[in-house]
Amino acid sequence: MTITKVSKQSYGSRLGGAFGGIILGLGLLVISSGMLIWNEGNSVKTSRSLKEGAKNFISVSSNEVNAANNGKLVYTSGNLAVNEVLADKQFFVSDKAVRLKRSVEMYQWKQTTKTESKEKLGGSKETVTTYDYEKVWASSLINSEGFEDKVNYQNPNKMLFKSKTTNAQGVKVGGFTITDKMVSKLNDFDELVVKPDVNATAIGIENLTPHDNGFYIGYNPSAPRIGDYKVKFSSVKPGPVSIISKQQNNTFEPYQAKAGRSVDMIKMGNHSAENMFEAAQKSNTMMTWALRFGGLLLMFFGFTAILRPIAVAGSIVPFLGKMVGAGIGIVGFLLAITLGFILIAFSWIAYRPVIGVALLLVAGGAIFLLIRNSKKRKALATQAEQDDASVTIE
């Protein structure tokens, strides 16, 4: 079902809100600047720490623990071994595994909002908001108290069954014991099939039936109702594993590199140390670029929020307001690129001067474009005034 709501905002109210948005814009600039500076420093420290680790690690056998290697960064591999059977006591599901995960989804209402705004002559704005409601399976509770229509579309106020993950204790690789923190990094889960002939009555949960390799809690899996549940299970099986970490007696701890970051890796399968370090470097690069993009995007939003009063002021004539708004978007983008690259460049100068200087040149190019764009607009405005004056004289 769809609900439509129409609201109007006066020119004065819009202008006041735009000026109020300047505070938000300044806040976004502070947050994005800090984010970009931290990200560059973290990227370089992580990269250098990984390079340091790649040069200093030693390969050891997992079958024997040599006390002489205590405190050293070591690489080893072997087969995971567990002595206990992990069990989900609520659903009577068990498996001899390193990790056991219960995944729960509840059938709920979901509200989707779509907004379209139209500026009117005189600076006011009319906003049409459409609310659509659909039923979805979700792993977390959707709060229906925030719905526009919370009378006809209500979700339960809590989830009676929740997702959870249990780790085995005393997991070993040869003579080494793996810490729980390291075990938690293993996410190679495989589906655990619940037998269809399981005694659902013994579990003691009303309306529970085996379904789709798991359980269904509700009256009819073919016609789900709001508040029904789907429960599935998966596990990380014992198998070959590769580790790079600091040996501490018969276990491992994160290795603190001189560059400032720790090295502590574990990966299912037989992988060489070189491949593990290479994969970690690629992951660091991807994360760095993702945070750069996020920081620059926040900075763009900050500048456009600060400049927004200009667009609102010009929206007395809708066409003019759109032109000014487009111009502000371009200026906001150039300002974000300029300030962002300056911050990134100065952050890198302390670590990699050549790259830092190159980034400063890029920022300088953006400043040049800003100045040239400003001069062009002034020249066009002057020409327009001259043309108007000549028409008046004639």
Which structural traits does this protein have?
394 residues, alpha+beta, 2 domains, eight-stranded antiparallel sheet, seven-stranded mixed sheet, flat
Structure characterization notes:
The protein is 43% helix and 27% strand. The chain is α+β, with helices and mostly antiparallel strands and 394 residues long. The chain has two domains: 7-49 and 284-393, no CATH class; 57-107 and 135-271, no CATH class. The strands form four sheets. Strands 1, 6, 7, 8, 11, 12, 13 and 14 form an eight-stranded antiparallel beta sheet that branches. It is flat and about 75 Å long.
What's the gist of this structure?
With 394 residues, the protein is of the alpha+beta class.
Based on CA atoms alone, the radius of gyration comes out at 30 Å
Number of beta-strand segments: 19
Q: Helix/strand-derived class?
A: alpha+beta
Principal-axis shape: flat
Q: Beta-sheet strand percentage? A: 25-35%
How helix-rich are the residues, as a percent range?
40-55%
- Characterize the biggest β-sheet: 8 strands, antiparallel
Alpha plus pi helix count: 6
